[in-house]
Amino acid sequence: MRYLPHTPEDIRAMLQVVGAADLDALFASIPDDCRRKEALNLPEPLTEWELNGHMDNLAAGMGASPGTKVFMGAGSYHHHIPEVTRQLLLRGEYFTAYTPYQPEISQGTLQTIYEYQSLVCRLLGMDVANASMYDGASGLAEALLMTIRVSRRKTVAVSRAVHPLYRRVVETYFAPTGFEVVELPVGQDGRTDLSGLKDLGELAGVALQSPNFFGCIEDMAAAGKMIHADPKTLFVAAFSEPLAFGMLKSPGECGADIACGEGQSLGIPQSFGGPGLGMFASRQSYVRSMPGRLIGKTVDRDGKTGFVLTLATREQHIRREKATSNICSNQGLCATASTMYMAALGGTGIRQLARLNRDRAEYLKASLAKAGFSSPFSAPTFNEFVVRFPDKFEETWKALLEKKMVAGLHLEPYYPELSDCWLMCVTETIDRDDMDTLVKEVTR
Amino acid sequence: MKEKMGTTGLIFNEPLLWEKGSPGRTGISLPRRDVDEAPLDKALTGDGPDFPDLSELDVVRHFTKLSQWNFGVDSGMYPLGSCTMKYNPKTNERQASLPGFAGAHPLLPERLSQGLLALMHDLAAYLGEITGLPAVTLQPSAGSQGELTGMLIFSAYHKHTGKPRSKVLIPDTAHGTNPASAALCGFKPVAVKSGPDGILVPEAVAALMDDDTAGIMITNPNTLGLFESNIRQVADIVHGKGGLVYGDGANMNAIMGVVNVGDLGVDVLHLNLHKTFSTPHGGGGPGAGPVCVTPALAPFLPVPRVVKDGEVFRLDENYPLSVGKLHAFYGNVGILIRAYSYILSLGKCLKQVSQYAVLNANYIKQRLKGDYHLPFDRPCMHECVFTDKFQQEHHVATLDIAKRLMDHGFHPPTIYFPLVVSGAIMIEPTESESKETLDQFIDAMQQIAREAKACPDCLHESPQFPKVRRLDETLAARSPCLKG
What we know:
Organism (chain A): Desulfosarcina ovata subsp. ovata
EC number (chain A): 1.4.4.2
Subunit structure (chain A): The glycine cleavage system is composed of four proteins: P, T, L and H. In this organism, the P 'protein' is a heterodimer of two subunits.
Strand order of the largest sheet of chain B: 1-7-6-5-4-2-3
Largest interface: A-B, 202 and 201 residues
Order of helices and strands of chain B: HHHHEHEHEHEHEEHEEEHHEHHEEHHH
Strand content of chain B: 5-15%
Structural class of chain A: alpha/beta
Number of helices of chain B: 16
CATH class of the largest domain in chain B: Alpha Beta
Number of strands of chain A: 14
Strand content of chain A: 5-15%
Shape of chain A: globular
Number of strands of chain B: 12
Low-confidence stretches of chain A: none
Oligomer: heterodimer
Number of helices of chain A: 11
Number of domains of chain A: 2
CATH architecture of the largest domain in chain B: 3-Layer(aba) Sandwich
Number of domains of chain B: 2
Low-confidence stretches of chain B: none
Mean pLDDT of chain B: 96
Mean pLDDT of chain A: 96
Enzyme class (chain A): oxidoreductase
InterPro entries (chain A): GcvPA, GDC-P_N, GDC_P, PyrdxlP-dep_Trfase, PyrdxlP-dep_Trfase_major, PyrdxlP-dep_Trfase_small
CATH superfamily of the largest domain in chain B: Type I PLP-dependent aspartate aminotransferase-like (Major domain)
Distance between the termini of chain A: 57 Å
CATH topology of the largest domain in chain B: Aspartate Aminotransferase, domain 2
């Protein structure tokens, strides 16, 4: 086998040094009644070309972009990934390294992640960012647990317009804790209705998402003011489409205490939903309550600048019974990919790209409106929006699958009251011709 | 090769990203504008982030230079104990980047996602076969999230039986994340001291196990690299009091095809795909931490689960006792593809992986035990633990040994872990290293042992070759500078 280097001679020589008669004798410390009696029931090993054929077959049946035109976002976005990101990421020195426990020979990872933290702070308008979380959903759960640690209160409020699958992950994390999650309703315009906030008692944190699950841009600045009417309540600004901050006010500008969300949009393939990138940032004063890894700048013995993992006392390997979270490995390479992507875009690029996403989505929204399909919500949107289709649209939608087109996400399973509504998404990878074709097909 | 591996290469200086570039440049090409501009309310818009503007070549050189300051498995031997830094086969990258996989939206209709659903279904079945615990979720994004999932299952199980419990036993030789994972689920972690030979004593467990204890979390082989040979008695004690046994399977690399974990009395086990199943660690993840359980605990696994109806695969949400969801979608599918590719490449030969991993560790242990102090001189599994006891009389510590190894061209082993061994040096060569490489590593370690006697200051001054020398970690923690 090409991954296993030992020849029979090597094995013989090494067994002799070890003093074992054969390979089985190496396991003498395992009691007999703990040994596996039967061989592994696994297939014969595949050669590299057999494996390629098998995997090509599995991949061929997938309705993936760009072969299929997917007008669906909902927390996973098809953006163009520049080849420079893809190829740089494959450099073995990044790809095959471990968590940078030995900083002297991990400066590549360390400086890159320090740059990641800095760019994330600039994008989200925050003071400190950690070196990544698993995904947007668990990041939100960790953010809400953090508001409980900071405020020493026991209830959090989450908008119903936050991604429904993120809210389910939050429920899972909260289930064994005894802390409570209450839901904030959605108003007529598609934005969170905060008018009942003051009746909810002492809240540790309030979480809103913008753009929210319906694609609506929340009035985050106004929300921030209302939430901070109680100075002990933390404002958690969640997101699933960070590209929007190329043109929208950042969470920090709107007064968020914690900003968290999914970073897949920033140069990471969709890969059926994972790996993505949990982005997580907060105000400076909360840094010691933050979960996850942090990289800090320092100097070496000669006074040269270098980088290390830092503030590790919050982590498992020092005071294990008192750790802030159990996170150790998470999405380092995805953070690296997004750093390369943000570097390639630059400030000029991200502003232009965000604008193009919004403009193309508005074109489809206007075209559908012209064709007689309106949106139930009036709030402004970024690159996603909800549209109401007539009864039996589901059949049209299914017929379009045959034409390699996924015409949005049906909202009924997530919001039964929106049973005739579909969530549409347009990024820079969908052009005007694609949109015109879609409109023609759905009006047929 | 007779010469020392380490040498000074041509290493470039490189500024921080925002010290480069010039406003107005860009490193990407944008699609042509084919629609009109749609104005947006000024109250909602901002100026956009203050990112530096770089050309594509600026970006390529920046990250190429930075990469040259890094050490990876592709660069050389990376014997980081407990982390299992084995070779990451290149074919796995080809498979994970197939457009059908990489470009797949997670909410595609089932009809358009049969390929990945089939892959996930079969991978779960293979992991069930390898562990002997047949019900499997692939959803947790890392080993630590797998531990959390396991503890959620403990919690849900005891709640379901009508008697919620408050404590979890954790041996001192377990992985560091275990107590935090238990605490996140509201359990109080209770430490169990190992015996003088580094393994669990059934009597110690019996003394602590009561009917308010949800169960025990056992790392096996443990973090001393030793097999917990009393595990069956321990499991009987825990089960006898109505508790569950959690197996931390991070060290599965040692026992594939040798031990059926299900037979040991383990009820719940997580695997680290990025360790045992060769997916790259990427400088800090992503990993994947599937959890395997007994059929009795299957109803508690996270949803959705992939099921096969006739010839069709679908996602099933209908498990009312499920702990819920751990990931917005289905976990780190890109990592699952790599692990699946690895399992198919080796198939039945996975047992050889464990045999060679254990052979390599015992070979190193045997050849270095005259030069370094071995606290537990027993046959080890896939890793062995030394200490700096012999070197201390020359005022050389574990840290100095580790740093000196860099100058010899090796990544240092894990140091000061496990915590139960003072000045620990934990070496895990993995099965992918050849005898020649192991011999070079042993030579380097022996030379360092000689240097410790002859010239302790050479070690205190190491490393000499990397781009930076020893870094001031206290300064970094005392006055944190976390962004620029």
